[in-house]
Amino acid sequence: MNPEPRGPAPGPGGRAWRALRRNPPAIAGAAVLAVLGMLALFAPFLAPYAEDAIDRERFYHPPQRVRLEDLSGRFALRPAVRATRLADPQRFAYQETSTIQPLRWFVRGDHYRLFGVLATDRHLFGVDAPARVNLLGTDPSGRDVLSRLLHGAQVSLAVGLVGIALSFSLGMLLGGWAGYLGGRVDDVMMRLTELLLSIPALYLLLALRAVFPADLPSGQVYLAIVMILALLGWAGLARVIRGMVLSLRRAEFVTAAEALGMSRLRILVRHILPNTMSFVIVAATIAVPGYILGEVVLSFIGLGVQEPAASWGNMLAQARSLRVLTSFPWMLLAPGTAILVTVLAFNLFGDGLRDALDPRAVPGRASR
To answer: Are 163 and 293 in contact (CB under 8 A)?
Structure first.
């Protein structure tokens, strides 16, 4: 009896997707990254307040607990928080009162532009004014930590993604050009990469940031950080791409393209560099946490995104004092947990992607 004919064998992309699906940590990391991306994208709508909105009556306010009960302790369908009062101004100690403040959905609040285009004042949740809800507490200026955390995600995540796009594009082009042309171009390019790699990254990062004026607006500081991280990040990739191109430039498909009279740039961009994409994708996924941490370090030491704009780095900077660490730990836990979860998710997804795209991996079994 003849066996039933099978369908066409899956291509490299299909095999990689099949291997990735068999890696639960990688799928979990990808899911977390997708959630973080959506939170950052819709941050102005999800945040109950603007990132710079100040409440002068709620300095160092602790996180409020959401309750599903009424004053008598019976179950209630509508979530609510209890109002608080300042019991000890010296220690910023607050006490709950008997006033119930129901959480309301799609409330009106601070004006913003969703995606930078759609002007609106609708927020996902809130309480009736003039009351305020602070699910993750407030900072020393009375600003809502949850709102700043969501707005800060836009800066911290975007710095990583945009920085990777710029540095990897630069590294692929320069490394590929050096490997394909060889000769003097290769020598000059490799000496430049060796010079950049020989300088400690942190000191070079600080030196480059010091070149820019200290009073730059937050938007320009953001662009400056992206440019600095991209300038520092391309050298290592360029060396690896150059080695891969050296092994590809004598391949038959490259020789055929040269025989057809194609330009060198077209051969490099259309025929050689696409064969390095599996490595580049994995390397970019694993390198993004380094760019995020670079922005965090700059903002933490006061050289990055400046107040009142929010980033995870300058949120951590407010939690440097011993008093904050011992008395107001939520100011450290909120941005610290966000950074930890983001870096861990990128690493899990990057490791799984590396295993899935590894041509030496045994089909049906994750590589170790």
So the answer is: no
Report CA 157 to chain centroid distance, whole Å. 2
Map out the domains of the chain as residue ranges: 55-138, 148-357
Distance of alpha carbon 130 from alpha carbon 231, whole angstroms: 47
The interaxial angle of helices 218-248 and 277-300, nearest 10 deg, is 150
Tens-digit pLDDT profile for residues 151-173: 989 888 888 888 888 888 888 88
Instruction: Report the pLDDT averaged over residues 220-227.
Output: 73
Sorted by sequence, the CB contacts under 8 Å of residue 255 that are 6+ apart come out as: none
CA distances (Å), origin 192, targets 186, 237, 283, 294: 10, 13, 21, 22
Exposure string over 108-127, b if 16+ CB within 10 A, otherwise e: ebeebeeeeeeeeeebebbb
Residues 310, 314: Cα–Cα separation, whole Å? 7
Tokens found for residue 302: 């006061």
State whether residue 323 is helix, strand or coil: helix
Which CATH code is given to the segment(s) 148-357? 1.10.3720.10
C-alpha–C-alpha distance, residues 80 and 126, integer Å: 10
Answer yes or no: pTM beyond 0.90: no
Whether the Cβ atoms of residue 63 and residue 134 lie closer than 8 Å to each other: yes
What is the bridge-based pairing of β-strands 93-102 and 75-88? antiparallel
* pLDDT tens sequence across 201-218: 677 767 766 777 766 666
Kindly give, in sequence order, each residue whose CB lies less than 8 Å from that of residue 108, ignoring residues fewer than 6 positions away: 121, 122, 123
Instruction: Say whether the peptide bond before residue 217 is cis (omega within 30 degrees of 0).
Output: no
Cα–Cα distance measured from residue 77 to residue 257, given in angstroms and rounded to the nearest whole number: 69
Give the dihedral sign, CA 243/247/250/251: negative
Question: Mind giving me the DSSP string for 39-53?
Answer: HHHTHHHHSSS-TT-
Q: Which run of H or of E encompasses 164?
A: helix 145-181
Residue 273, Cβ density class (10 Å: 0-12 exposed, 13-18 middle, ≥19 buried): buried
CA distances from 110 to 45, 94, 345 (A): 10, 26, 32
Q: Report d(CA 21, CA 19) in Å as an integer.
A: 5
